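Encode chain A's predicted structure.
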Amino acid sequence: MGLFDGLSISASGLTANRLWMDVTANNIANANTTRTPQGGPYRDEEVVFSPVGGSAFGQALSQAMGGQSPGAGVQVQSIVQDPSPFKLVYDPSNPDAVNGYVQMPNVDITTEMLNMVTASRAYQANVTAFNAAKTMDVQSIDLGKGV
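Encoded structure for chain A:
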């Protein structure tokens, strides 16, 4: 493992979790949007993560156990739309109503709030790991100087 690998791994986590928080905030903001430019109600979006380099968790774990190099971080593989059906709400006064029923977005606010807390905690954990790696790197450089 190189001197700055820990910083790079944590930085990839920071970037991925920030995007997850942005997508989650967008889902919450559009929880009541019944008309989009594409037509129909807003569809919930989900972030799909993958390890950098495409290695599976089992391979990364076996490499770590064998003393070989660990994974290289995480990346956002894609942002996908949730295919679950829309909610039907009876509201005949709504201009988007058909036979009195309005299709509402498939966004579950409880799930989105849980995603926001999880992404926020993961972001905080990556900040902590980044700072720890930075401190170790500085101490290693100082040790090499003989200070």
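The mean pLDDT is 87.
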